[in-house]
């Protein structure tokens, strides 16, 4: 069963250019992963510094493999100093 994920990030406005660069690398590398069906970066239209990752994974196991990838671990390390708050992550299965 496919796993749907929405991850919400809030970055300090002073770091927007750096944040986008980090996201670009993360998205590019993640899209290469086995089981990644969708991995899109969205910027909130009203709130500067607020981004969403819209993810679709073939399975929970594929997403589990993603969590240990170097590009994700590096993103987390580098982004943590630029963020205003902790990342919010919502996971679920399509019901209709």
UniProtKB/TrEMBL annotation:
Domain ABM, first and last residues per copy: 3-91
InterPro entries referenced in this protein's UniProt entry, alphabetically: ABM_dom, AI-2_Isomerase_LsrG, Dimeric_a/b-barrel
Pfam families in alphabetical order: ABM (PF03992)
Entry keywords, A to Z: Monooxygenase, Oxidoreductase
GO MF annotation, one: monooxygenase activity
PANTHER family xrefs: ABM DOMAIN-CONTAINING PROTEIN, QUINOL MONOOXYGENASE YGIN-RELATED
Descriptive protein name: Antibiotic biosynthesis monooxygenase
């Amino acid at each position: 069963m496919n796993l749907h994920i929405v991850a919400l990030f809030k970055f300090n406005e002073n770091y927007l250019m750096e944040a986008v660069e980090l996201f670009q690398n993360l998205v590019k590398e993640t899209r290469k992963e086995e089981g990644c069906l969708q991995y899109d970066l969205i910027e909130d239209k009203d709130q500067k510094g607020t981004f969403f990752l819209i993810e679709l994974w073939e399975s929970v196991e594929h997403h589990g493999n993603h969590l240990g990838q170097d590009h994700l671990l590096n993103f987390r390390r580098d982004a943590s100093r630029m963020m205003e708050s902790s990342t919010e992550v919502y996971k679920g299965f399509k019901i209709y």
